[in-house]
Amino acid sequence: MCKNPLSLSLSLSLSLSLSAAICLLKKLLEPDPNKRPNIHQVMADSWLQLANRNTGAPIHIEEINHTVLLHMTEKMAYKHSEVLSAVLTNRACHTLAVYFLLNKKMKRLSKEYREMQFQEKKKGEKQNNEFYQTQWRKHVDKLTIPPKQTPVYLAVAKGPSKEKKHRTVG
């Protein structure tokens, strides 16, 4: 029986990740404080670095959400330079937390708005199709179709037949 290479790779990756996590926990549970790692050694551990690979990357100026920045400076009285500095340096502070929370909320609301617009458009198209179908039925009802004509050879004569009767002489 042949195993899926993707699942094999995934299980290998998970087992390596778990063993690295267990190794870090064993180091942290060391009873001797001199042998126990300090915070800098823990943060430099390969397992934590693997888990935080995408975090901590600095944000470029082009990636800043200017709507959130404007809202924070105008409505929430943050200094423009303070917000920019916190976001660009990715410095952990309440300003950065507020920026990320507002940015996340804005993305969620934008997504919901786009979905709502899509549903309304879909609903409008459905109503439009129903309108055209209804209009088509109204026009069909107005059409007058002439009754079927009976072919001449099937017509039945109404009245006395025009055949001549032969008289017999007698």
TrEMBL record:
User: Per the record's keyword annotation, is Signal included, yes or no?
Assistant: yes
Query: Is Zinc one of the keywords UniProt gives this record?
Result: no
Write the signal peptide boundaries: 1-21
Assigned keywords, A-Z? Kinase, Signal, Transferase
Q: Which Gene3D superfamilies match?
A: Transferase(Phosphotransferase) domain 1
Named from the GO MF annotations, one term is: kinase activity
Q: Which protein is depicted?
A: Hormonally up-regulated neu tumor-associated kinase A
Which InterPro entries has this protein been placed in?
Kinase-like_dom_sf
